[in-house]
Structures are given as structure tokens and as C-alpha cells.
Design brief:
Chain A is an all-alpha fold. Chain A contains nine helices and no strands. Chain A has one domain. The radius of gyration of chain A is 21 Å and the shape is elongated. In chain B, strand 9 and strand 10 form a beta hairpin. At the A-B interface, helix 5 of A face helix 2 and helix 3 of B.
Chain lengths: 249, 264
């Protein structure tokens, strides 16, 4: 029964996306909603990205410095490994898992509340493509702002490591800076950005689906919000595995 | 004019609307009345396409609504205004922005003209002073009036109202009823009101349809409601003590008049 329900969900999601991914009724209104989305979903997430990236970056450097204390490995390895972890996985995957909680629940509860208070029905009755009007600007703004969040996260993660090296002195700041520049591959940054944009699409669209199809009252909106976070987390992890194999494997 | 032909709706095999046939006329207030759970809101939702009927036809003047493609439905809906039970105003927009919304989406007017039209609609519902307020800052009755202003912004041909008086005090209810009546006559709209409020029926029900357990039991004018020879309708109408007393008073007056005539 649950399996059939899941298949139904996939079908409903695909049909919803067909309605979402169409030309907006009024471009002016789309741009207005897009800018609103950039602010509420993107700009408002910068602080959480900065704080988490800074501390996790510091902890990564600290852990690596403590755990690869071998005379066979040069000390700048701490910088190299930390950079690769931050660039390849932390700033895209882990950050998106965190954002799926913040942004996903925000989108699901906002659209879910509009559904149960008949605001979406009101849009439909006016002849507006409600799915396109409400969801497309959210997806587009979040996906478009994702590279900014990822770059912020990368810099803050590496900066956190820099501060920990400055405070503890092991490895030295110079060695760490040398390490984060050594064997640098620019393509990893692009890989991370593209991956995070894909995750951005998943987070916004899945959360919007759960909100849009919410039925009942406040309790169901809460459940839609929770479900969106859970499903988003699973989808991000599975997509990460597939995307990594496809892009780097 | 809206025509309903043999409309049936089933939910999981359970019959909710059974073979409904009726016509809603232009320029008058058409009321659908009935007990809670009788199927009147389902009928309204079928009429506006929020629910697809199991069988039957709905015609908007010469346009067949049932079976229309979604693009055509969206085009037709630009001729429809709807007042929802909870008003359904957009929380993030001010009262004026709510009224301007349909104009922004579909009107070719420039910004100044759109604003002017929205201000006219707000004036029509006596709410000019609330233009800058948000829905959370106004009362339930005011919300309903804003929703009416939004519904008429694009000069619709058809107006649907779902329980327009629910949760309102008698005086505000009367105000909303009068507003619906005036708008219907002024703009020559086909108005359909779903209600279980008998005061509204007596106030504005030009054409009344009574639905009971998904079946259309009775149809007539507001003047005929009180004297209708339908047991189920009488049970519904005279469930209220007030209407029982009105009926009794009418009977006493009529008996007195007859007595007077006899004496003469």
C-alpha cells in the first residue's frame, strides 16, 4: 500500500512540475516573486551558512590535524584534505541537508497554509496557473542563489580552518595556506556549484509539492513540512551518490 | 446564465450529488440552500471546476464548461469572481494590493489605471480607509468585503459566494447580503450564493434551490419558500424558532383577515 502511495506521489509530483515549468502568465509578477524568493530563501539563509560553515570548517581542520599526525605525511596535507572535503562535500551536500530543513520547511509551510486557507483555490478561480505562479519563482530564485551560498560556505569553511591554525598553531598558518592552494582543481568548485544547484531544485520543488498537496488543517501543514524535510534529506543523499559517480567516477 | 444538466458527483462510490438540473439566471441572486453536508458546497466547487463532476454538463451561457481543456478553463475563469467562506485574501499583500492582484495578472491597464480601478472597487464596498492595512489587521466582515471587491475587480460575468455570512454578526451579514444584491443588479452578473442562513434567503434569494442529501428537492423564489409544500424544505426552514414564529404570526394575521372579511 505504501509502495503504491509512493508511486502515486511520484506521478503527482511529475504532473505538478509540468504545470510549474511553463511560461509565467505575467513576467512582471514572476520577477517580483523571484526577487522576493531571492531575499526570503537565499539572503535570509546567508547567516546560517556563514555560522555553520565557519565552525564545521574549523572542526574539520582540527580533526584532520589531530588524526593524521604522521611523520610520513607532510603537514600541508591537513590543508589539502580539508579543502577537498569542504569543496566536494561539505559546502554542497551537507550545507544543502541543513538548508533542506530551513528552506524546505519554509516553502512547504507557506504553500501548505495557502492551500488550507483556500488562497490557492482563489488563484485558480481567478484563472491563474497557481502552481506556476507560486512555485516557479521559489525554485528559480533558490537555484539561482545557490552558487552564492556555496561560495560563501567554501570561503567561511576555509576561513574557520585558518582561524583554528592561527589559534593552535598546528599546522602553522603558512602551511595551511600552502595546503589549501596545493594541487587545486578548479573543476571541483564547478562540480560543487552544479551539484548544489541540483539540490536546490530538489529542495524547493519537493517542499513545494508537499505544501501544494496538503489537505486538512494546521496539523497536516506541519506534517507536510516534516515530510518535505525527511524526503529531501533522503533524495539529496541518493542524488549525491549518483551525481558523484557520474561526474567524478 | 449558467445551466446544469444531469450533474452527478460520487466520492469513492458514495453519491454526493444526484442528477441535478437547474438554471441560474443573469442579474438575480441564485441561492443554493441546504443542511450542512447536503452537497451544496460540492455543487459550487463543481460549478467553478475545483471538483470534476462524475457525469453531467455545466454550461456558461453558450460555453460548455465540463470537458473544457485547462487552458480554456483558465480563460473562462477570468469571467468568474468568487467569495470564499474564509475570504482567502493573500496574507502578504495589503487590502489594496489584494484587490489589484487580478488586475495585475490579467488587465492591460497601466499601473495608474489599475490602482484607480482597485480604489473604485474598495469604495464600492465602503473600505477605502482600509487600503493600506494587511488582512491580519482587519475584521472578518471587512475581509469578506475586500474579497467581494477583489472578486469584482475584473468586472466578472459570474459571481460565486460560498457561505458569505458564516462567522458574521447579523448586522454585518445584512450588509454583505445587500452588497451582493446591489453588485448583482448593478453589474448584471449571474450570482450563485451557497448558504444555510435563512435570513439571507429572505433578504436576497431571488431564485432559491434547496438541496437535501445530494438531491434537488425544491426550487422557487424567496416569497414561495415560507409557503412551500415540501416537508424536507419546511423542516429546514422552520428549524429556527424565529421562522416558526414568523410563520405562526403570518397564519394568525391571515386568519384575522379572513375573519374580518367574513364579518364584513
Amino acid at each position: 500500500m505504501k509502495f503504491i502511495r509512493s508511486l502515486e506521489d511520484i506521478g503527482e509530483y511529475a504532473l505538478l512540475m509540468r504545470r510549474v515549468l511553463s511560461v509565467p502568465d505575467r513576467m512582471r509578477e514572476f520577477v517580483k516573486e523571484f526577487m522576493k524568493g531571492v531575499y526570503t530563501l537565499g539572503v535570509n539563509s546567508i547567516w546560517i551558512v556563514i555560522i555553520i560553515s565557519f565552525f564545521i570548517g574549523a572542526v574539520i581542520v582540527l580533526q584532520i590535524a589531530l588524526n593524521i599526525d604522521s611523520p610520513l605525511l607532510p603537514r600541508f596535507t591537513v590543508g589539502v584534505v580539508s579543502r577537498e572535503i569542504i569543496l566536494l562535500e561539505f559546502s554542497s551536500t551537507i550545507m544543502c541537508l541543513i538548508l533542506s530543513g530551513k528552506v524546505g520547511s519554509n516553502v512547504a509551510s507557506e504553500i501548505g497554509t495557502m492551500r488550507i486557507t483556500e488562497q490557492i483555490d482563489a488563484l485558480d478561480i481567478m484563472g491563474v496557473n497557481s502552481a506556476n505562479y507560486l512555485i516557479l519563482p521559489k525554485i528559480a530564485s533558490f537555484v539561482a542563489f545557490m552558487p552564492v551560498l556555496v561560495i560563501f560556505s567554501m570561503f567561511m569553511g576555509l576561513f574557520g580552518g585558518y582561524i583554528i591554525c592561527m589559534v593552535l598553531g598546528t599546522p602553522s598558518v603558512e602551511t595551511y595556506v600552502y595546503g589549501i592552494q596545493a594541487f587545486f582543481r578548479e573543476s571541483f568548485v564547478w562540480y560543487s556549484i552544479v551539484k548544489s544547484m541540483l539540490f536546490g531544485f530538489i529542495i524547493a520543488s519537493v517542499a513545494a509539492y508537499f505544501g501544494y498537496t496538503a489537505k486538512g488543517g494546521a496539523l497536516e501543514v506541519g506534517a507536510a513540512s516534516t515530510n518535505s524535510v525527511v524526503i529531501n534529506s533522503v533524495l539529496i543523499l541518493v542524488t549525491d551518490l549518483l551525481f558523484t559517480q557520474l561526474a567524478l567516477g | 446564465m449558467i445551466e446544469i444538466k444531469n450533474l452527478t458527483k460520487e466520492f469513492d462510490g458514495k453519491l454526493v450529488l444526484a442528477d441535478i438540473n437547474t438554471t441560474f439566471h443573469k442579474g438575480v441572486v441564485n441561492m443554493i440552500i441546504g443542511k450542512s453536508g447536503s452537497g451544496k458546497t460540492v455543487l459550487l466547487k463543481c460549478l467553478v471546476g475545483l471538483i470534476s463532476p462524475t457525469s453531467g454538463e455545466i454550461w456558461y451561457d453558450s460555453r460548455k464548461f465540463t470537458g473544457m481543456k485547462s487552458r480554456e478553463i483558465r480563460r473562462l475563469r477570468r469571467d468568474i469572481g468568487m467569495l470564499f467562506q474564509g475570504a482567502a485574501l493573500f496574507d502578504s499583500r495589503t487590502v489594496l494590493e489584494n484587490v489589484m492582484f487580478p488586475l495585475e495578472m490579467f488587465s492591460r491597464k497601466n499601473k495608474r489605471e489599475r490602482r484607480k480601478r482597485a480604489e473604485f472597487c474598495l469604495e464600492r464596498v465602503n473600505l477605502s480607509e482600509a487600503a493600506t492595512l494587511y488582512p491580519s489587521e482587519i475584521s472578518g466582515g471587512m475581509k469578506k468585503r475586500v474579497a467581494i471587491a477583489r472578486a469584482i475587480a475584473l468586472n466578472p460575468k459570474y459571481l460565486f459566494c460560498d457561505e458569505p455570512n458564516s462567522g458574521l454578526d447579523p448586522k454585518t451579514s445584512q450588509l454583505i447580503d445587500e452588497l451582493i444584491q446591489d453588485i448583482t443588479t448593478d453589474f448584471g452578473m449571474t450570482t450563485v450564493v451557497v448558504s444555510h442562513d435563512m435570513n439571507s434567503v429572505i433578504n436576497i434569494g431571488d431564485n432559491v434551490i434547496f438541496i437535501n442529501e445530494g438531491i434537488k428537492e425544491w426550487e422557487g423564489s424567496k416569497a414561495e419558500v415560507m409557503d412551500a409544500d415540501n416537508e424536507k424544505l419546511n423542516d429546514f426552514v422552520f428549524a429556527s424558532d424565529l421562522f416558526k414564529k414568523i410563520k405562526e404570526a403570518e397564519e394568525i394575521i391571515s386568519e384575522d383577515e379572513n375573519q374580518e372579511k367574513m364579518n364584513k
